[in-house]
Give the backbone structure.
Amino acid sequence: MKGGRKDNFYFCLLEHFESENRWFLRSILQVRDEENIEGDDALREWISNYNIREMVVDFPLSSPPCINCTLECPGSNKCPVPAVATIRQKTEKLLQEDQDRLEKNPKQYEYDRNNDDLFFHGKDYVSKSPTHHLLSRSFKRRLKRGLIPYWNRPIDFIIWSNYYDALLKLFNQSYDSFGNTGLVIISRFSYLKRHFPKNLAFYEGHTLIILIEMMRAGMIKQAEIKDLTDIELGRTARQTVIKALEKKLNLFIYENDLDLLVRHPRAFESFLMAASGICLRSTQVRKIPQWIGPESGYFVIPKFVN
């Protein structure tokens, strides 16, 4: 979901057939206001008609710690909320380890830093975890800014620790839960959720993290990720990604649906969310530490490596 109330978006429905042990892309819904029905009503009808039980969305399902906090606030640098305090300790530890390496062997540190700063075609940006020393300059700056409890959620730190460098180098993006999410979207979903079935379970995902995990599993190449934003090469790149998921997840897509996914970037992103749902159902997901709070139970990071 992106944009304002009148902006359209897509939902993809995947269904599992146990007899064939295979997934099928059963329906693609483009939610937009039509002459005879509003988009929100069409979505509710679609969920009811197909008896949808689980949904993965691409926007925050929870709030930053400050929103519902009733404690007397000592300031963000002294926040006593357990998850925030743990992140502060982990951040200080990483920065201190980096400083220790610098003081222990300044010349080696400078040599490693210069190598890390090198840029060349085909450089691997996804294999190394940002928290493995040597810390990149950009990741150190992110750590020094710290987690802002009225803006960030604890899950943000987990994503920074695993994907920060790759997100920055491959997509020129960082990650902040509410960096690209407007109040309109959150309010709209809050309204819609009140009209959905009570037994409908919601999960949260992120399209760029899914693509990085596909790269780490060797399913797609870095050049194909770069091509996704190219006007001329984007369609071919999207088809390559879809075909890789189709093969990996034992998924069947009809040709007309494939054509729609390839032509419309938002439909493609919706498909990525649905594909992460397959990984959720098969428990092929990255474990998220429970100490971060509720996000550990519903933030989906697919794991494509067996």
DSSP finds twelve helices and five strands in the chain.
